[in-house]
């Protein structure tokens, strides 16, 4: 009886952690679409709409986050960064961190 009980609890914990992991992945992918990143950087950060725009998939997460923050704040400011800056009011710092982690795990 106790063996069954702990088995059921274990299965429950595993199921819950699988579900929360996929929810996290969906959130990041959803944010990437909804916050308009996809419009310029393309599907999963690999297909930029213009040759002058960067591919961002598979880059280091801290670097991705730092660049997003610098473009949002205007510290990184050049001809092309301006296009992105104009869209960055759509995304919060917390959401940027989630998207950065997700992009870093994607294949280049
Ligand atoms: C309007 C187009 C546009 C949108 C929308 C946009 N970006 Fe960008 N992004 C750019 C351009 C252009 C650059 C390169 C700027 C430059 O030349 O310095 C850039 C640069 C970056 C970089 C730095 C890449 C590097 O190698 O230094 C990251 C990371 C990035 N974008 C992520 C995002 C994320 C995440 C989103 C969504 C929240 C987003 N961008 C939305 C156009 C856009």
Q: How many domains would you count in the coordinates?
A: 1
SSE order in H/E notation?
Answer: HHHHH
Query: What is the mean predicted local confidence, pLDDT?
Result: 88
Shape: elongated
CATH evolutionary superfamily:
Cytochrome c-like domain
Portion of residues in beta strands equals under 5%
Distance between the termini: 50 Å
Sheet/helix structural class? mainly alpha
Count of helical segments?
5
Please give the number of β-strands: 0
Q: Supply the CATH architecture.
A: Orthogonal Bundle
- Low-confidence stretches at least 5 residues in length (pLDDT < 50)? none
C-alpha Rg (nearest Å): 18 Å
Bound ligands, named by name, code or SMILES? heme C
Question: How much helix, percentage-wise, in residues?
Answer: 55-70%
CATH class category name? Mainly Alpha
Q: What's the CATH topology name?
A: Cytochrome Bc1 Complex, Chain D, domain 2
Largest sheet: none
Description:
This protein has 108 residues and is mostly helical. It is 64% helix and 0% strand. It has helices spanning 2-34, 37-41, 61-73, 81-85, 93-105. The longest helix is centred in the N-terminal third of the chain and has 33 residues, at 2-34. The N and C termini lie far apart (50 Å). It binds heme C.
Short description, anyone?
The chain has five helices and no strands. By secondary structure, it is mostly helical. The chain has one domain: Cytochrome c-like domain (Cytochrome Bc1 Complex, Chain D, domain 2).
């Amino acid at each position: 009886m106790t063996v069954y009980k702990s088995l059921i609890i274990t299965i429950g914990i595993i199921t819950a952690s699988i579900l929360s992991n996929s929810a996290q992945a969906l959130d990041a992918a959803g944010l990437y679409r909804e916050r308009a990143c996809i419009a310029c950087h393309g599907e999963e950060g690999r297909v930029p709409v213009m040759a002058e725009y960067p591919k961002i998939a598979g880059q280091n997460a801290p670097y991705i986050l730092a660049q997003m923050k610098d473009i949002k704040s205007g510290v990184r400011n050049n001809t092309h960064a301006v296009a992105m800056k104009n869209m960055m009011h759509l995304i919060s710092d917390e959401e940027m961190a989630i998207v950065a982690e997700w992009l870093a795990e994607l294949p280049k």
